[in-house]
Design goal:
heterodimer, A: mainly alpha, MetI-like fold, elongated
Chain lengths: ~550, ~280
């Protein structure tokens, strides 16, 4: 009976501990898988021809000929869409036309002046032109089809007027002709409605295909291209094909979302076929295809992470992490060796050990503030937030972890090792360097691995001490500069840098443009995890090689 | 066990003569035969007395076994000879313990030189996590020998002396930890020999080994006898009887009897010794 109880106890404990481990693993996966799943879309995604154009313009990547052919293919199917849009918008959005009519009238006046028209004739012609113009403007501004058609007919009657022959005024009649065609098809009484919808359609087309032909080049890169990725293109297509409206069924009733096809909104107008066309020519319009954008890890970003990659962030994080390790590892290991091998067990050493343990638990923002106060403000030689100040702050942050792990590792080296070395006539220092530290290597490396990930991921300590959300890439100078001025070899230490951890924070909360590109937000977080994992894997490989050597396999 | 390759052990190595034997000048007038001589030597761990007023002289080139029950101070005495007990905080020594006529507990004693002269083999084989070659070279390198040819010579000689050469000559650069326990212990002996000591202290060198490995170590001790003065602490009385010329019996920190092995085991002069070796002790 007792044996059975013991067995049950044993099994129960085994199951419970296995369950706990599984739970942790599952929690980790629940966090990591979606993050990776979304982050990876920053690297592997379906590109469009717009993306290829962007890469060509920005980095000169891709084959010129192929791109030109693809763009020509795209232009061939885009052209009819643009034409439809232009013609329809001329009928609806008449403001530009009114302005054009006034311009034509002014030009006609200049034309008359230029040809030295006699004074009486001049004022007569001007008056006639003014009538035509007013007639046209009335037609353009009217909502009633009959009025419009009457006005336009009146204008068109003047077409053969000798006063306007071969003058800029002929443009009036061309305009009238075009507008007449539109007025015959479009329901002008709903002009205001059409106008709003048309603006939405135009915006969607701009998002999808880039700026319309004839428009000036927008100043921002993000506006100069259409949808560069299929997921963004599909969003723009949905906005183009369907209108989302919140409509209440009656007074007091809640608003309900209605999805209305644009095709119905524009039924009967010349714009109607546009929507079918977009759907039919979809593949040719954007030519989507799979892309592995590995340059994501090297490229700088453009327009607040709307385009581009996280290269400078990776570089900055690596610099900060490795620099802090360069400071923290020697300092930590030497301190640990002193504490274990030399210090003895006095009250002071106990106090120091307690301080180290306390430091390991101090919140990282405290280190950040300390770094700001001490490295940035107090130490005049640094004087401003920079890589050096940030890495020193990070190294202080990870120092307790390294000291504690190294202390344990050094203490765990069997006494027989030390005795063997001492018995062979080695001094204390040689024993430490030649025997104890190598034997403690794997344990020390464990501490280093822990602190490496911590240093790479911490945001608060570097927040005030050397990291920026946007700024130049650290400048390492060139060999010729180093020769000229050896000090410039370390110039990068005194420059601020970008980092993945702070970048992830900034891109998630502070940046409105990057919010339009969620793949960038997840991509940055994923890169940080990948980088940490890569650093860890490297350290673990070194550790396993070391311990294999120590075990003698 | 005698291998034809084993070169005769002679301390004719040129380096030995050249090695400075700078010890404290507190000369002890003993018979020139005695390499190690203790006079009223006591050793304390704090207030506890580990070795109590021991006086004995160990002949050069002999094998001396120290036997006794656990906690009798035999290991403490052995480790005092090359001052390995210094590592224990709060320990101190009284009286005289001289090696080659120089008191090792003199303030001026150079520990590095002392330990090079008095090598030690420990209870558990403790090779470094390095290659066999590097293990042997550890001592010579500390002495400043850098030349590869010289080091290789030392490695071969020491491994031959330790009867390990034939087994490992092709694997010199493999990790020492890949060897078996018995091989590791012989490697440790070879490593000790590489510093060219006069005295080799062995602290229960076979207690972690199986009988076959033990037999080989015992053969090795027999081979080394004469060239080195060996002091061996052991719990195994048969072993003491087999390998040693003289045997010392310690009990409760005191030296009870010290005599030729044959005599001590066949005709002990003290009652305690007889009780112990016949198993009536305690």
């Amino acid at each position: 009976m007792k044996t059975l109880l013991r067995q049950i106890q044993d099994k129960g404990f085994t199951t419970a501990s296995a369950g706990a481990v599984l739970l942790i693993a599952a929690a980790l996966l629940v966090v990591l898988i979606p993050m990776f799943g979304r982050g990876i879309t920053a690297v592997i995604f379906t590109e469009t021809v717009e993306f290829r154009r962007l890469q060509k313009d920005l980095h000169g990547r891709g084959d010129n000929e192929h791109l030109a052919r693809a763009l020509a293919d795209a232009a061939a199917v885009r052209e009819p869409i643009y034409t439809m849009l232009r013609e329809f918008s001329e009928g609806i959005d008449t403001e530009p036309l009114v302005k054009q009519a006034r311009d034509v009238y002014q030009k006609y006046g200049e034309y008359l002046n230029y040809h030295n028209t006699p004074k009486e004739q001049y004022s007569d012609y001007r008056k006639q032109a003014k009538d035509v113009r007013d007639g046209l403007v009335d037609a353009l501004e009217s909502d009633d089809r009959q009025t419009v058609l009457d006005d336009l007919d009146a204008v068109l009657k003047e077409k053969d007027n000798p006063a306007f022959a071969d003058s800029p005024a002929m443009e009036f009649f061309a305009m009238a002709q075009r507008y007449k065609k539109i007025a015959e098809t479009v329901d002008l009484s709903h002009r205001a409605e059409y106008l709003t919808n048309l603006q939405e359609v135009t915006a969607a087309i701009r998002q999808l295909l880039g700026p319309l032909p004839g428009e000036p080049t927008p100043p921002l890169w993000m506006d100069q291209y259409g949808a560069t990725r299929l997921d963004m293109a599909l969003k723009a297509r949905a906005a183009l094909l369907y209108d989302e409206q919140w409509i209440s069924d009656g007074p007091g009733k809640p608003m309900v979302k209605h999805i209305i096809a644009r095709k119905e909104q524009f039924a009967g107008t010349p714009l109607e076929p546009l929507f079918d066309r977009v759907e039919a020519d979809w593949d040719k319009l954007l030519q989507p295809r799979l892309r592995i954008y590995w340059q994501y890890f090297f490229d700088d970003w453009v327009n607040s992470h709307y385009f581009g990659g996280v290269g400078p962030e990776i570089l900055g994080t690596l610099l900060l992490t490795l620099m802090s390790m360069c400071v923290a590892i020697p300092l930590g290991v030497i301190s640990a060796a002193y504490l274990v091998e030399y210090a003895g067990d006095t009250v002071w050493i106990k106090i120091i050990r307690m301080c180290i343990n306390t430091l390991a638990g101090v919140p990282s923002i405290v280190y950040g503030l300390f770094g700001l106060a001490f490295f940035v403000v107090t130490i005049g030689a640094i004087g401003k937030p920079c890589i050096l100040a940030a890495s020193l702050t990070l190294s202080i942050l990870v120092l307790p972890v390294i000291i504690r792990a190294s202390e344990e590792a050094i203490r765990a080296v069997p006494q027989t090792y030390r005795e063997a070395s001492l018995a062979l006539g080695a001094g204390k220092f040689r024993t430490l360097v030649l025997v104890t530290l190598p034997a403690a290597g794997p344990g020390i490396l464990t501490g280093i691995i822990l602190s490496l990930s911590r240093a790479a991921g911490e945001t608060a300590p570097i927040l005030f001490t050397g990291v920026v959300a946007m700024g130049p890439i650290p400048n390492f100078g060139s060999p010729s500069q180093w020769l000229e001025n050896p000090g410039s070899l370390f110039g990068w230490l005194f420059q601020p840098t970008r980092a993945l951890s702070y970048g992830s924070y900034d891109i998630a909360v502070g940046d409105r443009i990057s919010m339009l590109a969620p793949h960038q937000q997840f991509g940055m977080a994923m890169t940080l995890i990948l980088l940490t994992v890569a650093l860890n894997v490297a350290a673990i490989l070194i550790r396993s090689r070391l311990s294999r050597k120590l075990r003698g396999c | 066990m005698e291998t034809p390759e084993t070169v005769p052990l002679k301390k004719t190595d040129a380096g030995h003569a050249a090695r400075p034997q700078q010890f404290a000048q507190a000369a002890v007038t003993e018979s020139s035969e005695a390499v190690i001589s203790a006079r009223q030597f006591s050793f304390f761990y704090g207030a506890k007395c580990g070795v109590d007023q021991v006086s004995m002289a160990i002949r050069s080139g002999s094998v001396t076994a120290i036997i006794g029950p656990s906690g009798c101070g035999k290991s403490t005495f052995l480790r005092s000879i090359n001052r390995m007990n210094d590592l224990i905080p709060g320990s101190r020594a009284q009286g005289v313990l001289a090696v080659n006529g120089h008191n090792v507990y003199d303030k001026r004693t150079n520990l590095v030189n002392l330990r090079q002269q008095v090598g030690m083999v420990f209870q558990k084989p403790n090779p470094f996590a390095k290659s066999i070659y590097d293990n042997i070279c550890y001592g010579p390198r500390l002495q400043g020998i850098r030349s590869r040819g010289r080091l290789s010579e030392i490695v071969e000689k020491c491994l031959r002396d330790a009867a390990l050469w034939d087994e490992v000559k092709d694997d010199l650069h493999k990790s020492a930890l890949a060897l078996s326990g018995g091989q590791q212990q012989r490697l440790c002996i070879a490593r000790t020999l590489a510093t060219r000591p006069n005295v080799v202290l062995m602290d229960e060198p076979c207690s972690a080994l199986d009988p076959i490995a033990t037999a080989r170590i015992e053969d090795l001790i027999a081979q080394l006898k004469g060239a080195y003065t060996i002091v061996i602490v052991t719990h195994n009385m048969q072993q003491a009887a087999r390998v040693s010329d003289e045997t010392a019996f310690f009990c409760l920190g005191k030296l009870i009897e010290y005599d030729r092995t044959e005599k001590l085991f066949t005709n002990p002069s003290k009652k305690e010794t007889e009780d112990y070796i016949t198993g009536r002790f305690g």
